[in-house]
Amino acid sequence: MIQPDDIDGAICAMQKLCEVAMPAPHYLKLPISLTDEELMDGDPLFVFCAFSVAVTWNLFLFPLAIGLTVTWSGIRTMVLAVELFLFFCLMVFSFVVRNIEIAELRPYLTRDELLWPYIGGFALVLYAASTTSALVAAFAPVSSTIGQLAIWNRWGVTNEHALLALLKGTCITALLLGTYTTNKDMFIFFKSVAAERMRQRWLAGFLKDTYKSLSNRVRSAEAHGNKALTEKWNGGYPPDLNLTAIHKSLRKTDVQVMRHIWDEIVKREQGIPSWMINVPGIAAWAAEVEHCIDSGAGHQTAERDRPLGSESTER
Questions:
Q1: Domain of 214?
Q2: pLDDT for 188 beyond 80
Q3: Are 106 and 182 in a shared domain?
Q4: What is the pLDDT, as a whole number, of residue 105?
Q5: What's the domain count of the chain?
Q6: How many of the other CB atoms lie within 10 Å of CB of 282?
Q7: How far is it, in rounded angstroms, from Cα 49 to Cα 127?
Q8: Is the entire prediction scored with pTM above 0.70?
Q9: How far is it, in rounded angstroms, from Cα 10 to Cα 15?
Q10: Do 173 and 260 share a structural domain?
């Protein structure tokens, strides 16, 4: 009878035999070995969608939860203080991460979308004011020091009335901003997707025509003594591909791995992972190479650190 230990030993032997007979390619590291979590959490657009939903749900659930609490139990300041504090903490975290991801995506923003950080900041101030007033109203009977913070009492306004006024204003603001955020975040998502499609089309055209002609121009310039171009061209590889990758998990990828990916993209192989590279960075690198070719070796040494648009500005 075959024992389980014999089966395990045979499996281990077969695995070792396969490793010897078919060694894994050197490039089967990152990003080939990315887990689903790394793949999703490293994508700025995916993270933006997640925290955009978090901000929107917070804005809509806030008035619903506060309204149900007041309707069910009345003005119980301690319960309201706990709820407001939790909503405030979640709102701050989601709001900050959402804005960070928008900055990484760099979509085209309209005038009112540029004002969103200030509008959202106003909502956070209302959240903080409501939370503070609820905490003051909850602990005022316990501590006279905290009770002195209730400045509205000097004008004859009770803690409950002050808290209700702030809650009413905050709830109305949250509902309005929730609707606005849902509308605008959908536009940001669509603009980000459209921008990515345009980048991919530019990359396809660049590799089909411009990259080949650029390679020929580089060889011709190097033959005429343009040695400064050699460092800029970098053997046909954009510099620091692993550092310029938009995907966060790919920023720690080995340079040789990203060069292998670039070779696949240049060869236009089926299923090339062009989303793994920073297309605007490729465009900037190509523009620098063309500028280096046109300026010549001697002129390039003096102009290396100058902005690309400096000549047009001087003219």
A1: 195-309
A2: yes
A3: yes
A4: 83
A5: 2
A6: 22
A7: 23
A8: no
A9: 9
A10: no
